[in-house]
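QA checklist item 7 of 12: single-chain prediction sanity check.
[x] sequence parsed
[x] length recorded as 227
[x] structure emitted
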Amino acid sequence: MIDQAAGATRVLLIGRYPIVLWGLEKLIDSQKPRMEVVGKFTHCAEAFSQLEELSADVILLDRDLGIENAVDDIPRLTALTKAKIMVLTGSRDPSAHVSAVLAGAKGVVEKEEGVETILRAIEKVHEGQLWLDRTSMGMLVIELSNRKVSEKRDPAQQRVGTLTDREREIVATVTSHSGATGTVIAEMLHISESTLRKHLSSIYEKLGLSSRLELWDYAHKRGLNKD
């Protein structure tokens, strides 16, 4: 249980349907003072600019956002906020749960679970624990083990592993918009051109590259781009 003296767990909701967001808000706010909703959005794009201001502890993210794949937005969410991401899903597919965690989520809870389970999942994720069912956890362990073996065999993949989540986001953005100027890329990432250049210098050094052209080729060969 979260220590109430430490303040309420601040929860941000992102989901496709307003009625579902309303229900989740009522559920979570009923637990005051130990947890409360600090914001709700129907698209991740709406939340990006307000993440710092809202200072959420946990982001409860509905995996089904219509044409928007919420899992694809997890890396950017984790790059922009210290809040822990918990995915709410209607899927029972363990591989989908694992994909969400590999993208950066700290937990996955199914929509059909009882309200107490959802509340407990929020608490545990806030405390730093990973919330995942046994089957998905087993698949995650196997996947991580296979990745470690693959990285040991592939020196290039080892270099990729040294990139931070923010650097991976920058690589994906830069290489998915090869014709864009540094100014445009910086605006897309909400950083200055100077900061972008510093990040690129670090990325080039880590990957043993020297230009955006080499980075584009490297990223497309290893699936680091968004295409």
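[x] summary fact logged: The two ends are 42 Å apart (CA to CA).
[ ] second reviewer sign-off
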